[in-house]
Specification:
heterodimer; A: 130 residues; alpha+beta; four-stranded antiparallel β-sheet; elongated; B: 83 residues; three-stranded antiparallel β-sheet; 3 strands
Chain lengths: 130, 83
Amino acid sequence: MNSSLIIDATDPTGKKLQKTLAYIHPNATNAQLGEFAQKLMALTTNTYQGATRVKREDVTDPDYTGKRVPTLTLTASGSGSFTVTYNGDGTLHTTNGTISGNTLSGVTAAGVVYAAETENFAAAIAEFTL
Amino acid sequence: MADKIISSSTLNMVAGFADGDDRTISLENPNTAIDLTAQVANLGTYLKANQIVAGDKTGADFTKFKSAKIVNKTITKFDLTGN
């Protein structure tokens, strides 16, 4: 949570001016801030017009915990191991295998990227967190 | 065109906090007709009793105004027409 204070005033020539203080204590009350704004303007020849408190709250969305970038290493019998990665773009990536449905094969093929038909597998992998 | 002189004045108050952090509050057009030294001291007492301005870290209370200065700025714009 972050609070700032904007003070509206006019200078001795009647020109409007605004003063922003970004380092306001979050626990300060509105009444305290209003009083403080007037006390500050009392040190000047400006005329106090009003004040605004700006309160900003940043809350992490509990339904979205960020993009997952899992990496899964599988060992296929007789074929050695290969790596499948999913970066949340709807496409599974593997550098040394082929993905078809829920089946991985062709571990000798290099640099192949596969897409939507691997949806089930993608969902399973998306649950896998690093 | 002729040379132009623009003058302005600012009151710079350096607020000190418990964690050693400083913040400067600058106010344009300080009122030199009043006793500013006493007024800044009063404001410091008020801020210590009412924590309104905050330091960088939570719990870093305002402790005192370390200094207050009036800075008079004069900007001269020289007309170079004909130079």
